[in-house]
Amino acid sequence: MLEQPPLSLYIHIPWCIKKCPYCDFNSHQVNGSFEEDKYTNKLYDDFLVELNRLGDKNRELQSIFIGGGTPSLFKGDSFHFLLTRIKSHLKFSGNIEITIEANPGAVDSEKFRAYFDAGINRISLGIQSFDDKYLSKLGRIHTSGDAIKSIEVAKSAGFENINLDIMHGLPEQSIEAAVEDLRIAIEQSPSHISWYQFTIEPNTYFYNYPPKLPGENIQDSIFEEGSKILSTHAFSQYEVSAFAQNFWKSSHNHNYWSFGDYLGIGSGAHGKLTLINENKLIRTNKPKRPDHYMNHAVDSATQLREIPIEERTIEFLMNALRLKEGFSQNLFEVRTGNEFSVVSSKISKLIESGFIETNKIHGEDFYCASNKGYRFLNTLLGEFL
Q: Which residue among 244, 291, 315, 323 is least enclosed by CB atoms within 10 Å?
């Protein structure tokens, strides 16, 4: 039977200074000015529409994530306006995590301080690499020097919870170069590192003009060496590409991976809500083009889709098996509304074949991907299709 999961909020800022050739996110290159104030007001209208879908207005917000695009193009006043009004409708949990993504090529010390003063307490910097050669290959607008400076500016603005996005397996990247990126990142003393493998996605420039990527053996060696370094420096892996120090796990992303609920506002944003009384899980999607989003009534332009009961299992597993801790029988049942028996026999077989293992957490059995299962996660998930 479904139970109410934690609630998060995602806010999408769709503009960026330059569209990167590998980026498949809903981002639109700024050509001249953009309507920041109009868009900010629209976000608030959008939030009010989503609030009405909740049913229970007494739910607490556990986390907020401001992503993009490049949210750091916006003024601190815009986020202060938005967060203040959101808080007047929904209670913030006592330890709410509020994250903003920032591009090292769009760093302003006054803006960063204004973000912190507005209540944003976590910043995620899109570093990707500390090597100018690879930054150029990726079409990034910042340099290694800009990356270091952005971290220093974030710290001086008051941020203690800092995530660095670093990619590995970049075009023609060696094992040594990938490991060096990680070493430099660790030297900056972040609380969290998102270290993920570079991939080529459809609808990107690189998809049509693919660069030469390192071979599988090199990729495996990069991950093996990098994981050792992270572990040596007390960065604990809790998800496929997420490493945290001193328990600074991202509560927002953990809620995603645990199949929690989240409101999604902004151009191209999507959300997921559990409607207990109706025994439904629904997804919401907003218009991708900023002009369409701003010039149409939010309610009528929002696409709604119920997640059928038969799809809930694989959607849950695609998220939960990314987590190192995995999931329990109880979590599976209260988040999907399905009986554990629909997956128990397959899980038993996958345990026998070494793809899944069990661990005790607070006295409860948790099912998680083994090292083998993590390495071949798509193969593992394919067993449930």
A: 291
Asked whether the bond before 354 is cis by omega within 30 degrees of 0, the reply is: no
Q: What pLDDT score does 190 carry?
A: 97
Strands 280-285 and 60-68 come out as unpaired
CATH of domain 324-385: 1.10.10.10
Q: What is the mean pLDDT of the chain?
A: 94
Tokens 């270290």: give the residue.
195
How far is it, in rounded angstroms, from Cα 101 to Cα 159?
Answer: 13
Contact 255, 61 (CB under 8 A): no
pLDDT tens-digit readout, 179-226: 999 999 999 999 999 999 999 999 998 999 999 999 999 999 999 999
**Count of residues in the chain:** 385
Tell me the per-residue pLDDT of 308-328, one tens digit each, with 9 for 90 and over. 999 999 999 999 999 999 999
Rounded CA separation 237/239 (Å)? 6
Q: Per CATH, which fold does 7-255 belong to?
A: TIM Barrel (3.20.20)
Tell me the sheet residues that pair with 333.
none
Boundaries of CATH 1.10.10.10 in the chain? 324-385
What stretch(es) of the chain map to CATH 3.20.20.70? Answer: 7-255
* 365 phi, psi to nearest 5 deg: -70, 130
From the list 33, 44, 146, 150, the residue with the least C-alpha distance to 100 is: 150
Cα–Cα nearest to 318, from 327, 308, 305, 309: 327
- Single pTM value for the model: 0.96
